Amino acid sequence: MSTSAMNWNKTLSYLRRYWVLYAMLILPIAFFITFRYIPMHYIQIAFKEYSIVQSPWEMKWADNNGFEYFIQAFSNRDFIYALRNTLMLNFLDLIFGFPAPIILALILNELVFKRFKRFTQTVVYLPHFLSWVIISGMALQLLAPTNGLINILLNRMGFDSIPFLNDPVYWVGTYVVLGIWQSVGWNTIIYLAAITGINPELYEAASVDGAGRFRKIWHVTLPGLRPTIIVLLILSLGQILSSEFDRPYALSNKLVTDVSNVISIFVYNYGIRGLQFSLSTAVGLFQSVVCVIFLFAANALAKRFGERGIW
Amino acid sequence: MVKTKSAKIGDWVVVFICLILIFVCLLPVLTILARSLSSADALIKNEVLLWPKGLNFDAYTTVLGDSKYTWSLAWTAILTVICTIWSLFMTILCAYPLIYDNLKGKKFFVALILFTMYFNAGTIPMYLLLKELHLLNNPLVLIIPNCISVFYVIILRSFLYTIPESLRESAEIDGAGPLRVLFNVYLPLSTPVLATLALFYAVGRWNGFSDALMYMNDRKYYPIQLLLYNILNSINSIEVATQEGFSTPGLSETIKAATVMFATVPILFVYPWLQRYFISGVTLGAVKG
């Protein structure tokens, strides 16, 4: 009796003291439940016949044990293209875009003039803050076939114009390069932070042993960056089937849709514009699930190689 | 330490490389600027490189004289301010209680929030929910559904954790409740990270267009980026003239360049001011994330 009364008193004084914290959490938790959890019940329509008058719980199951729309997706040419494009663009981003900030961070780290270093950082971070619509506007002015700056210069030097934006193959290159241009500076921040964490004595010891600039980078800086690189690589691998919307949508044009339509754009075109809700939800679900699996797999792989992983 | 001659040359090579990188970063901005300030005639003749030719501000006055464009700029500015304040408010509400280690149910709340980082319902379920809530075509749809970023909650929480607990405890001994502690201890000490998050939220809203593209049909509430997208991508300029304003048909390249500049300038102005704050903010979230 007395212990339960004591517990009750304890709870009461705890609540009197901390009820404000729970009150503060009401709005954010309500936000997450309403806009992140409640939408999940619509995932059912991937397995059901969508009907505008019924709630998802009441809708009829789709054919083939509910998997009709997944089967439809994989026999849909647009989806196969979207899947291929998503993998291709993400893979190219990984190959070219992943090492770029590491290299830039190494270069920035070699700058001995502190003020100039700050200025350089300020400038290279800037593109991260520009929207993809703005970047596509800039790309048009720079790369358009007849009046883009680069092609004007090429023509003046006697070369033919290069269809950077209108030819599928060149477009893929432009997409990757613009992606690097936009993000490389920003992504150095995390590497530069990791570099400041490297013990300076290691550099001194390397100097004493007669190591030059490149040897110090190779034997001290890069090993110091290893954990950071691994974690970021895991995250990127986990994202291999995710698809941005803004970037491909803003950069795309009618001539290159065969390579620029990624899964997010497929879902937009078929779902929101085409009102095929079941099919597009099925595609979205497929993507989310594969992304989660990839993330866990990449993490497990990193742990197997003796790294810390992200969990 | 005395540097050898070759090491010194190496230092200058690095400077040279960085100068090239700076040029590459600024090249598109310079191109747009030069073109927006040039005469339409010089542009058609492909005479403009990185320096304006036939310097004039006609393109800018034309754009400013277009009521649809200026309204969209003003509306996006208002929207950005509202979104930033609301998002920051919600982020503080979400992050602050979760630094109390003895808060009962904390683990549950953290799990509830973190889970949404790894798995989300997807575009269409979100669309159907907003439809159900009658938020489609409602300007609120540009504010509410994405007002909290889990990633920014983590950044703020990691920062709040770095503030010594002894400060909180001494305030509590003086009889201050959690709210007072927040206002008198935590918020004053977190201005750098709050400024960083405000910048991120503001830039996100200013630059965002996919939510408006998916959830809004009413052109009146198009944010500037979506309007800009339509201007840049309508091949038929008469169509642009009738739909998006700009009564003069044949939208010239100078005007296109000027519309891009107008959408960029606010960022170019805000960015250097907040720049000194954000580096500490970003690395914090990254290290502890």
Automatic annotation (TrEMBL), chain A:
It is found in: Cell membrane. It comes from the Bacteria. Its main location: membrane. It holds the Pfam family BPD_transp_1. It is a multi-pass membrane protein. The keyword Transmembrane helix applies. Gene3D superfamilies: MetI-like. CDD domains: TM_PBP2. The chain crosses the membrane at residues 20-38, 87-109, 129-154, 175-197, 217-235, 284-302. Keywords: Cell membrane, Membrane, Transmembrane, Transmembrane helix, Transport. Residues 83-298 form the ABC transmembrane type-1 domain. SUPFAM superfamilies: MetI-like. Belongs to the binding-protein-dependent transport system permease family. This is ABC-type transporter, integral membrane subunit. The gene is txxe3918.
From TrEMBL, chain B:
The keyword Membrane applies. Belongs to the binding-protein-dependent transport system permease family. This is Binding-protein-dependent transport systems inner membrane component Protein LplC. Keywords: Cell membrane, Membrane, Transmembrane, Transmembrane helix, Transport. The chain crosses the membrane at residues 12-34, 73-96, 108-128, 140-160, 181-202, 254-274. PANTHER family: ABC TRANSPORTER PERMEASE PROTEIN MG189-RELATED-RELATED, POLYGALACTURONAN_RHAMNOGALACTURONAN TRANSPORT SYSTEM PERMEASE PROTEIN YTCP. Residues 73-272 form the ABC transmembrane type-1 domain. It is found in: Cell membrane. It is a multi-pass membrane protein.
